[in-house]
Amino acid sequence: GPSRRQRRTTRPAQQMIDATEPDALALPPDAQPPSGTPAPPMRFRERARQRLGVADLLVFRIGGERFAIPIDSVDELVESPRPRPVPGAGAALLGVFPFGQHLLSLYSPAAVLGPSTAGDIVALVMRHGRRQVALAVDDADDVLRVALKDLRDAPRTGREDGIVLGVLWQDRQLVSVVDARALAAACANTGTTGAA
């Protein structure tokens, strides 16, 4: 078959979960205010901090480490993008690649999360404010339904504080659960500072 480098497919991330499953993001009944007025939906970051509810998480790998973000924070996965360098960009900005009718910035999360990609990459296309950005990872193909009460506090390293919301064990491996918004913002900020 074709090598991974030759495949240039995209797939909506939401197709990776079964649409017939009950709403995993609903708040538990006791999280509603007593007045009977429904509370506004909590952001994933707050639900993770309070260990409330369940979430469908996309697991991705960078180097030998595994990370997870809410599946609904990823618009698409692009296999083997071929970024073109941007002169004068920060080291975290790997370049831009064609995506639909525009060019999409591809960032390395290495400066934020630690490990670097090795070999072919997959781009996680996600929102950053009003625009889309992509993050380079080694692989992204596993979706976990997680009870947020099972998250454990992440060790504080100073590097990703505020981005890593907790850790969990899955298949005897540690998975760091990250705030997708904070990760995209940190990567974009790192990509615009410093010279490449």
Describe what is shown at a glance.
The chain has 196 residues and is mostly beta strands.
Tell me what you see in this structure.
- This protein is mostly beta strands and 196 residues long.
- Helices cover 12% and strands 37% of the residues.
- It contains three helices and eleven strands.
- It has helices at residues 44-50, 110-113, 180-192, and strands at residues 10-12, 54-62, 65-70, 74-79, 93-99, 102-107, 122-128, 131-137, 139-147, 164-170, 173-178.
- The strands form two sheets. The chain has a six-stranded mixed β-sheet, covered by helices on one side. Strands 9-2-3-11-10 form a five-stranded mixed β-sheet.
- A hairpin with a 2-residue loop joins strand 5 (93-99) and strand 6.
- It starts with 9 loop residues before the first strand and ends with a helix.
Q: For the largest sheet, list the strands in their spatial order.
A: 1-4-7-8-6-5
Query: Which series of helices and strands comes N to C?
Result: EHEEEEEHEEEEEH
**How many DSSP helices?**
3
Distance between the termini: 36 Å
Supply the helix-strand structural class: mainly beta
